[in-house]
Amino acid sequence: MRDSLRLIIDSYDPGAPLTEASTIPAPWYTDAPIYDLELETVFAQSWQLVARMDQLVQPGAYVTGEIAGEPIVVVRGADGVLRGFFNVCRHHAAAVMTEPEGTANHLRCPYHGWTYSLEGELKGTPDFSGVCNFDRSRSSLVPVETAIWENWVFVRLGGRLAGVPPTTDLAQDAEATLERFLGADLVNQIKPLDLGSLHWIERRHYTFDCNWKVFVDNYLDGGYHVPHLHKGLDSVLDYSKYMIEPGDHFCLQWSPLVSEGAEAQTGAVRKGDRALYYWLYPNFMINWYSGAMDTNLVIPRGIDKTEVIFDFYFPDVSAAAREGNQASIDVGQRIQDEDVAICKSVQRGLNSRAYNAGRLSVRREAGEHLFHRLLHADLTAGLKALQGNS
Ligand code: FES
Ligand SMILES: [Fe+2]
Asked: What is the mean pLDDT of the chain?
């Protein structure tokens, strides 16, 4: 199994310059073992967005999520500190918190009623007297690295921690490692956008019948598909001036906006002088226009199933602004609807015996090239680590 995995991974040449490069080969999008390796070495090892800051303002506020198939909960403690844990009861492994979000005084497991403080310490164990050699202090919820950037809370699972009691406070170091991962370049580019002044208003979930990388590739094609697939969006972007600026773990794609000749519905809500599209490896996007932002979180749900969570933000979320904000969300919805069919079509084609890999546009597809090389590096390192462990 691992030999065939290695063959599939090695069939991509990460050293080829963009002018010579091909995409990652089709089996990367269709083979289940690659998918499992990605969960373990890409999603479990990278920083993953788990919540918005506005969901976690008050002590006791919590958000649950799933990263690489692992249940996670982030909660603001009574002491005001934000912490993340594996949402796995230390008794018999049930999920302790079962709602997507909420506010609680303590974290109570619904199975047998074990209760943890907001800081993750085991406090209550009904009907447990007489149990010998049981150290309650070593049965806290297992912590996960948690760090904040701009409007968002990220976690990183890291190596397999199951059963390891929390002996250290992971929070302190985490902020520094997230910042290193993001890189000063990205942090400095995002800071002046003043994202803290935007307010979240709505979340939408989309399901795509494709591998998660098909969605990311589609996002990173430098506007290549926009004139063909998104006529409305195309009417407000200056396609010939669309820029692609890859960083270390991110890629900025941006375009000047034009108002002349704009299709009415899109032109009304895509104003200002430019549109910025940031992709953060592996699966988070920030789409910024003056007066609007949406983010996309891409969650693999299977080899050919992907959920994308869209969060919409605006500077003014008062009743007076509602109509304009809704019109902006509707334009975003239309663009997604236009992408759904093409992503499904690509996934079907990737399964065809007629296709293995394709070439990249030098003018447009530097972002995809970066994505594929980062992925290759992670999968190669991940496979090596797994082989070392076996
Ligand atoms: S599994 Fe949580 S109390 Fe038993
Ligand atoms: Fe698109």
From this structure: 93
CA-closest residue to ligand 1 atom 3: 112
Instruction: Please list every protein residue whose CB sits less than 6 Å from any atom of ligand 1.
Output: 89, 91-92, 94, 109, 111-114
At 72-114, the pLDDT tens digits run 999 999 999 999 999 999 999 999 999 999 999 999 999 999 9
Confidence of residue 160 (pLDDT cuts 50, 70, 90): low
Q: Assess whether the previous peptide bond of 71 is cis (omega < 30° from 0).
A: no
pTM of the model: 0.94
Query: How far does CA 312 lie from the centroid of its chain?
Result: 15
Contacts of 253 by beta carbon, 8 Å cutoff, 6+ apart: 220, 222, 223, 242, 243, 244, 245, 276, 277, 279, 367
Contact 112, 92 (CB under 8 A): yes
Q: What Rg value do the Cα atoms of the chain yield, rounded?
A: 22
Please tell me the number of the ligand nearest to residue 89's CA: 1
Length of the chain: 390
Annotate 180-215 with DSSP letters as a single string: HHH-HHHHHHHGGG-GGG-EEEEEEEEEESS-HHHH
Tell me how crowded residue 40 is: count the other CB atoms within 10 A of its CB. Answer: 20
Q: Are 83 and 146 in contact (CB under 8 A)?
A: yes
113 Cα nearest atom in ligand 1: 3
User: Closest Cα to atom 4, ligand 1: which residue?
Assistant: 112
Q: What is the pLDDT, as a whole number, of residue 3?
A: 80
> What is the 8-class DSSP label of residue 41?
I
For residue 180, the tally of other CB atoms under 10 A from its CB is: 11
Q: What's the CA gap between 319 and 297, in Å, rounded?
A: 27
Atom of ligand 1 nearest to the CA of 89: 2
Mean pLDDT of 309-335: 95
Ligand nearest to the CA of 228: 2
Q: Which of 86, 91, 116 to mutate to test the pocket of ligand 1 (most atoms within 8 A of CB)?
A: 91
